[in-house]
Amino acid sequence: MEKDVSYLSKAEEFIQMFKKGEEFTKELLKENEKLRYRIVELEGSIEKSVDNARTKLYENRIKLLEDELESLKDKFRKVAEENKDFASKYLEVEEENNNLANLYVASYQLHSTLDFSEVLRIVLEIVINLIGAEKFAIMLIDDKTNELVPVTTEGIDMTEVPKVVIGSGTIGRVAREAESYFAEDLTGVREYNPFEPIVCIPLKIKEHVIGVIAIFKLLTQKAGFTNVDYELFNLLAGHAATAIFSSRLYTQSERKLTTIQSFLDLLKEKPKKWENR
């Protein structure tokens, strides 16, 4: 009987131990499950952190690329502006070269002949083609009467340009003071007034004025004067005056020489006539 009791007691102890083992196993399984869940959470957190880091890295990289792109755009705009400046300067230089060539040609033409009529024609062409005048007159001083007398005109009849006394009106003052005159309104529509030019340029050799170029109207396409126009005015004031003065003296001397030669020829013929008598 005592043996049976001991067996039962041991069996009960074994059962208790089994139950405790079962409970411990359950607790282990629960802990294991918690650990797995925690691991999953940690893995998710790590992945999220990695994703955030990657996203931040990509955002920083995109920001750098955008800044670099903006910098390149700025450089491109600056280069484009520089190219525009270079193109503009190139056109200015090319225009300046053309203007210098025109000035050279005009100067060369003025001194290419000693024929008075030809020189006047060349001056007319310069004023028309290079300056852009439509109506103007070239007037020279008559030393005997102290008046400005028209010698050639363009766009107006020479009879419409009266003689001008030195010091009288705009034209007379320009001849007396040897200073160019430019009206404030160069392109305004106005009636032709022979005493009120819009531009008047003295023709002078050093400080000695021999005449003027009086411009009364510009061509329609001529809106105003540029730097090269003023250079041309200076050219006309000096070179044209010299060319006109030289050709006039040469023409007068040629005429005198022809007259003297004719007179000498007559003198040579007279003895023959007397011999015949």
Key traits:
277 residues, 4 helices, six-stranded antiparallel β-sheet, rod-shaped, 2 domains, Beta-Lactamase, alpha+beta, 66% helix, 6 strands
How does this model look, in words?
The protein is of the alpha+beta class. The chain has 2 domains: 1-101; 111-262, GAF domain (Beta-Lactamase, 2-Layer Sandwich). Helix content is 66%, strand content 14%. The protein contains 4 helices and 6 strands. The protein has helices spanning 2-110, 116-131, 169-177, 227-276; strands spanning 133-142, 147-154, 164-165, 181-182, 199-205, 208-218. A hairpin with a 4-residue loop joins β1 (133-142) and β2. α2 (116-131) packs antiparallel against α4 (227-276).
Strand content: 5-15%
How does CATH name the architecture of the largest domain?
2-Layer Sandwich
Number of domains: 2
Structural class: alpha+beta
How do the helices and strands follow one another from N- to C-terminus? HHEEEHEEEH
Q: Which superfamily, in CATH terms, is the homologous superfamily of the largest domain? A: GAF domain
What's the helix and strand layout?
Layout: H1 2-110, H2 116-131, E1 133-142, E2 147-154, E3 164-165, H3 169-177, E4 181-182, E5 199-205, E6 208-218, H4 227-276
Antiparallel strand pairs: 1-2, 1-6, 2-3, 4-5, 5-6
Helix pairs in contact: 1-2, 1-4, 2-4
Give a quick summary of the entry.
The protein is α+β, with helices and mostly antiparallel strands and 277 residues long.
